[in-house]
């Protein structure tokens, strides 16, 4: 049959055509189909230790897994060869976990999402088991209430410590914990205080400290005329 004859919409059937006499193709249940598939997870070949990353495309052989199913659904097995050493690697579908299961020829590498899913599944299974046992549920509630009481006690202790810290005067605490000054430091501190007093009050010839009088203020007071206390009032003719 040529390409032109294959693409026509109407084909000629002779009058003596009988489809029941056509030879049937021999097919078995374990028939394999060649299919273009991407690797579903990261793996490492056990023969040459070649890394095969997720999403790499291969021409794989697909077959139906005999004797296994999940809720009446068929499972499929895939065969492909390592690109480096041509060793055969197989994996199959895992409908229960919505994933793929590695069989042989390679080792599946670590995946964080897979570890998280396994932990969540184990947690759910444990919760279901605890719900069926009333004694475990009672023990769990008792432990939760005890942990809550301990947490409240720790919180009250922290609040008490915080209130005590707020009541402490920081300046007094620093003064009390301040180390004693040496003799030279005390003399220097006394000299600084004396200089501050001299700059404010003044110093006489014999070394005594006296208060300065502002001359400009006295001159201003002398030149300013005093206001009269007598105020003229209007004469009342009534």
From TrEMBL:
Give me any GO biological process, just one: generation of catalytic spliceosome for first transesterification step
Can you tell which superkingdom this protein's organism belongs to?
Eukaryota
Q: What's the name of the protein?
A: Splicing factor YJU2
Quaternary context: Component of the spliceosome. Present in the activated B complex, the catalytically activated B* complex which catalyzes the branching, the catalytic step 1 C complex catalyzing the exon ligation, and the postcatalytic P complex containing the ligated exons (mRNA) and the excised lariat intron.
Region named Disordered: 212-238
Q: Give the function comment from the record.
A: Part of the spliceosome which catalyzes two sequential transesterification reactions, first the excision of the non-coding intron from pre-mRNA and then the ligation of the coding exons to form the mature mRNA. Plays a role in stabilizing the structure of the spliceosome catalytic core and docking of the branch helix into the active site, producing 5'-exon and lariat intron-3'-intermediates.
**The family this protein is said to belong to:** Belongs to the CWC16 family. YJU2 subfamily.
Q: Where does Zn(2+) bind?
A: 45, 48, 82, 85
Q: Does the keyword Glycoprotein apply?
A: no
Quote the cellular component terms of the Gene Ontology held in the record.
U2-type catalytic step 1 spliceosome
Swiss-Prot/TrEMBL keywords: Metal-binding, mRNA processing, mRNA splicing, Nucleus, Spliceosome, Zinc
List the molecular function annotations (GO) for this entry. Answer: metal ion binding
> What organism, scientifically named, is this protein from?
Angiostrongylus costaricensis
| Presence of the UniProt keyword S-adenosyl-L-methionine in the record | no
Show the InterPro entries listed in the entry: Saf4/Yju2, Yju2
Q: Where in the cell is it found?
A: Nucleus
């Amino acid at each position: 049959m040529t390409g032109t004859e294959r693409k026509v919409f109407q084909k000629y059937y002779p009058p003596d055509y009988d489809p029941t006499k056509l030879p049937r193709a021999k097919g078995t249940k374990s028939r394999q189909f060649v299919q273009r598939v991407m690797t579903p997870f990261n793996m490492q070949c056990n023969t040459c230790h070649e890394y095969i990353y997720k999403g790499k495309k291969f021409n794989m052989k697909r077959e139906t897994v005999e004797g296994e199913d999940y809720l009446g659904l068929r499972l499929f097995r895939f065969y492909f060869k390592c690109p480096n050493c041509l060793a055969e690697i197989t994996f199959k579908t895992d409908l229960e976990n919505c994933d793929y299961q590695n069989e042989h020829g390679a080792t599946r590498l670590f995946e964080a999402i897979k570890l998280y899913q396994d932990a969540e599944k184990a947690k759910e299974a444990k919760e279901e088991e605890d719900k069926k046992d009333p004694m475990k549920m009672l023990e769990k509630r008792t432990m939760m209430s005890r942990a809550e009481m301990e947490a409240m006690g720790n919180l009250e202790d922290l609040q008490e410590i915080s209130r005590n810290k707020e009541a402490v005067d920081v300046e007094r605490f620093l003064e009390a914990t301040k180390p004693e000054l040496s003799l030279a430091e005390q003399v220097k501190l006394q000299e600084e205080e004396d200089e501050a007093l001299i700059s404010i009050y003044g110093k006489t010839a014999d070394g005594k400290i006296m208060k300065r009088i502002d001359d400009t203020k006295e001159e201003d007071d002398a030149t300013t005329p005093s206001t009269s206390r007598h105020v003229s009032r209007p004469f009342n003719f009534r």
